[in-house]
């Protein structure tokens, strides 16, 4: 089920299983180099008022839209209605049918409001969007989102920007066994091992922003994340040994001096 | 006449179309979305839609985000 070499959703195929955000970098040139180092093919963007001060640099000046697929998000939306409007605006900016659907339920945790998220997913799917919902690690919710037509499900590993890693790997495993659509861990990745763990569980991809942008050396961290996602995926496909309580020797006792 | 543009009051000439407004602002039509009051104006209507006094205009684009 999950043995494909490419990440597939919404009629598209991608080599890289790492999706990277464009927010919170020290400056745009660093962001550009970090995106390059990450090997990501999909980058997330936000939908916000254009800067009317023409002396300011613009994000899109630093992203080659021929090279990267833009994934607009509905960050900052707290209701289905708001998220739907932002999704329509994102589509109108004209570069993408894909939407990373966020409907936030709480300001401190930035956990999703799943009720509103499901509502918005249903409407947007009907309007032809490729919906990638940011959700929590509830397998019941994941199933509902899939049934509503989501192109993937994106359970959080931990709160956005928290760097706490994959807090509930068991639920992620259950989600992987519950849905057929790609499962992409989105939020909470803090360092390379977190990304590797997500991929070792069998996830189809990882989405991160702060983990790279907030690192002391974002470009170096982006490269580390690229390797971590590749290593984790390869380890998953290679089929790990089982976990055992007791030891099993690696060296036979045969041939020892009696 | 007065309109609200991205949260601020702005004076524009009577008869200004959405397209003319974008030109005045130095904005490329292909990189933005325009909302007039609560409606999203599709790109092929930029030349046809004439702004009215008191219109609330939002011009959005892609900015940095995770």
Care to describe what's here?
The complex is a heterodimer of chains A (258) and B (66). Chain A is built from 8 helices and 10 strands. By secondary structure, chain A is α/β, with parallel strands linked by helices. In chain A, the strands form 3 sheets. In chain A, strands 5-4-3-10-9 form a 5-stranded parallel sheet. Chain A has a 3-stranded parallel sheet with strand order 6-7-8. Chain A has a two-stranded antiparallel ribbon with strand order 1-2. In chain A, strand 9, helix 6 and strand 10 form a beta-alpha-beta unit. The termini of chain A are far apart. Chain B is mostly beta strands and 66 residues long. Chain B is built from 1 helix and 5 strands, in the order ββαβββ. In chain B, strands 2-1-5-3-4 form a 5-stranded mixed sheet, with no helix packed on it. Chain B starts with a strand and ends with a strand. Chains A and B meet through strand 4 and helix 2 of A and strand 3 and strand 5 of B. Strand 4 of chain A pairs antiparallel with strand 5 (56-64) of chain B.
Tell me the strand percentage band of chain B. Answer: 35-45%
H and E order of chain B = EEHEEE
| Helix count from the secondary structure assignment of chain A | 8
Which class best fits the helix and strand makeup of chain A?
A: alpha/beta
Radius of gyration of chain A: 20 Å
Continuous helix count of chain B: 1
Taking the sheet with the most strands of chain B, its summary is: 5 strands, mixed
Shape of chain A: globular
Q: Name the poorly predicted regions of chain A.
A: none
Task: Please state how the strands of the largest beta sheet of chain A are arranged side by side.
Answer: 5-4-3-10-9
Number of strands of chain A: 10
Identify the most extensive interface between protein chains: A-B, 35 and 24 residues
- Summed over residues and divided by their number, the pLDDT of chain B gives a mean of 96
Shape of chain B: globular
Distance between the termini of chain B: 38 Å
Regarding quaternary structure, what we see is: heterodimer
Kindly report the spatial arrangement of strands forming the biggest sheet of chain B: 2-1-5-3-4
